[in-house]
Amino acid sequence: MCFGRCARCIGFKLLILAVLSIVANILLYFPNGETRFASDHHLGKYVECLHGILGGGVLVLIPAVVFIGLHNDDCCGCFGHEHCGKSCAMLSSVLAAFVGILGSGYCIIISALGLSHGPYCFTRLERSWIYPFAESTGGYLFEYSRWSECQEPQNIVQWNVTLFSILLVLGGIEFILCFIQIINGILGGLCGLCCSHEEV
C-alpha cells in the first residue's frame, strides 16, 4: 500500500472529524438553540475552552490539509535524488501529525473534564447559577433522577453530556489517526513513498 495514499486517506478523515468537532463545540454555546445563555454568560467554564473549535478543529485541520497534499508533494526534490523529496515530505508530515495529537489531546482532556464537572445551571434548591454536580466527579452521569435539579437551561444535562461525549469520541479518533500517521510518515520517509518498487 502506498504511504502517500494512506496519508491522504487519513487527511480526508481528519478533515471531516475536525468539521464535526467545530459544529459540536458551536452547539455547546447554544443550549436548545437559544442564544440568551451565551449572551448572559451562563455557560460552563469548559464550554468556553474552545476545545472543539481550536483543539479538535483548527489544530486538526492543519495536519489534515498537509496529509491531503502529501501525495503530490515532493519537497522540490532532494539533492537531485528522485523520490528523496517525497520521503522528506513524509517525514515532515510527522511534525504535522504531532500538531494534530496536541489538538485532539486538548479536545479529549477538556471534554472529559466537562463531563466530570457537569453543567453550569440554575437550580431550584440554591435559586442561583451553580455547578450542582461538581462534587460528584462524574457520578451524576448515572444518577438520572438528579438531572432535573437543573431548571435552566432546560435539558442542559442531556445537552452537555451528549455534546461533550461526541467531542470526546471525535478527539479520540483524531488522536488515533494522527498517531497512525506518525508511524506511516516515519515508515514512508524511511522506505520511500511506496512499498512497490514499480511506483518507486
Automatic annotation (TrEMBL):
* Species this protein is from: Pelecanus crispus
Alphabetically sorted, this entry's keywords are: Membrane, Transmembrane, Transmembrane helix
Record family assignment: Belongs to the L6 tetraspanin family.
By what name is this protein known?
Transmembrane 4 L6 family member 1
Q: Which GO terms describe its cellular component?
A: membrane
Decide whether keyword Aminoacyl-tRNA synthetase is in the record.
no
- PANTHER family noted in UniProt: TRANSMEMBRANE 4 L6 FAMILY MEMBER 1 (PTHR14198:SF18), TRANSMEMBRANE 4 L6 FAMILY MEMBER 1-RELATED (PTHR14198)
Q: What is its main location?
A: membrane
Q: How does it sit in the membrane?
A: Multi-pass membrane protein
